[in-house]
Design goal:
This protein has seven helices and eleven strands. With 253 residues, it is α+β, with helices and mostly antiparallel strands. Helix 1 packs antiparallel against helix 2. The two termini are 13 Å apart.
Length: 253
């Protein structure tokens, strides 16, 4: 298995702080195959703290558990446990000071295990799979507008401009427990995974940019181009994009 990573993050054109946080492995890292994006929320830098805290807690837990990855089940269990532990850490921290009350973060995490992809997801950041030129959303938004769309209250055309578009129904750190969506996908050679915060998806339709993924450019270039498109379209929120390509062969491209 060979993985190529790229990432882009920016505070956008409106926000004063970048409350997004992400992780991709550096070269020769012990965290190979683990990637994450998180979009923090809360006043007085609380969102910035929450997103970073969740990612760093999961990395620490990975360090403890990585030796026990002997099956798909063990990996799936790790993902759920790691996210629940991170949720408890942020929730308990939020009670230590009034200025941290209400802090929280989304999280979309992916882990590549041989030819399988595991995803853990809470909130409205997203994971997309690009395969054979087709873009498929893997995650479901935990948001008010998604619930309204699914129960027929609003139409797809009304989603983008809905006055409560920013309301999320599930976040890490908001309560002492949280439901985590977990997914498992069998990978094909050449698959590309995009993890991103809603600062990208409110400005950029990935399906309309499918030519990028077939262009042969690097994952770093793809992440940067997508991020710049979001900035050019307004950049109304923090923007983070992580791009990863999976290869089932070890040779250099």
């Amino acid at each position: 298995m060979k993985l190529e990573y790229g990432a882009f993050t920016h505070k956008g054109n409106v926000r004063k702080l970048n409350e997004d946080y992400y992780y991709i492995p550096a070269n020769n890292t012990e965290y190979e195959g683990l990637i994450m994006v998180a979009d923090g929320m809360g006043g007085h830098k609380a969102g910035e703290i929450a997103s970073r805290m969740v990612v760093e807690n999961i990395l620490k837990y990975y360090e403890v558990k990585k030796g026990s990855f002997t099956s798909k089940e063990s990996v799936a269990n790790f993902i759920c446990e790691a996210i629940l532990k991170a949720n408890s850490t942020v929730f308990n921290f939020s009670k230590t000071d009034g200025e941290y009350h209400g802090m929280g973060t989304t999280l979309t995490l992916a882990y590549f295990y041989y030819n399988h992809l595991f995803i853990g997801h809470v909130g409205d950041s997203r994971g997309y799979l690009i395969r054979d030129g087709e873009v498929k959303q893997l995650t479901r938004d935990h948001s008010l507008v998604q619930e309204l769309l699914e129960n027929g209250t609003i139409t797809q055309d009304q989603v983008e401009n809905h006055p409560r578009k920013n309301v999320i129904t599930r976040a890490l750190g908001a309560e002492d427990n949280v439901d985590v969506d977990c997914y498992e996908i069998d990978l094909k050679n050449g698959d590309i995974l995009i993890l991103c915060t809603d600062g990208l998806t409110r400005h950029v339709n990935l399906s309309e940019n499918s030519h990028l993924f077939a262009s042969g450019i690097s994952m770093a270039e793809i992440a940067t181009i997508l991020g710049q498109k979001a900035l050019e379209d307004g950049g109304t929120d923090n923007i983070t994009v992580v791009a990863t390509q999976y290869s089932d062969r070890m040779e250099e491209r």
